[in-house]
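[job 4471] stage=fold_predict status=RUNNING
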Amino acid sequence: MKVDRILEIIIYLINHDNVPASYLAERFHVSVRTIQRDMISISAIGIPVYSESGKYGGYSILPTYKMKNSDIRSDEQQMIIRALESLATSYTSDTLKALIEKYNAIIDKEGGQKVFWDFGVTRENNQVQGMNRLLEQAIEGRKLITFDYRNANGDQSTPLVEPLAIHYKWYAWYLFAYSAEKKQYRTYKVARMQSLRILDRVSAVEHGDVEQLMKASEQAYYQTCIPIEVQFAPRDAGLMAEYFPDCPVERLTENTSRIFIHVPAGERLWKALLLSFGNRVKVIGPKEYQQELIETAQNFLSNYDI
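[job 4471] inference complete, writing structure tokens
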């Protein structure tokens, strides 16, 4: 629509100086003549647009013209835009890019940046980003999907589900979906999904508050948690508290401290973290978890001639 395009052009010009008409035409998929007419419309509503001719000419909005947001303090505005920009390092989305453009247009950029985030290290590969875009389309259209899936144990399956939401946690993207066949909600790690197919079938199931459903599913997952007692030297108390921030560290003796970590039965990350300490930690119980860690270490060593 023309109104939407003009709004996007205004926002873009507020964030950029001296933009050629040819670039705007390509960006908004219209002709140069249409851009020229849009500039007349923008000027007519009181926004001071001026143009420079010549090889390096283009359109600009007078620097004195600024959109203000009086309800959000400057430091809060900076915090929001930096969070959005950092999110963009781990999630590819045209909607997110447009939101950043819009918010850049309304914040006061004076004062300099004081807080920095960089989630670039958590960006998943292009396959996951492409999968997310397809999942967004399926969720928007309430379309059923099917895909090839490999779980953490290497078991293969081909679920047929209704995608309800994608969410980011534990440094990875996950799909929250509903299986009509099994009458249950399931969570899938996007990186383990292959050959996604969006079907023509539209779901008629009313799910209500999806966010609450996700929370209930997560709570059910954490109800499977088992407390594992780990003992270690007091000098490692700081590192243990860093890795397991919600688990209090208890001093037993002058040479021994302990912590109870709560992990779901199927979680594997805890083993990697504890093994990284080498002989500086010892799992006390439960005995089956102690044995599981021993077997993991033995299987690892079996690859080497020791």
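[job 4471] summary: The chain has a mean pLDDT of 80.
[job 4471] exit 0
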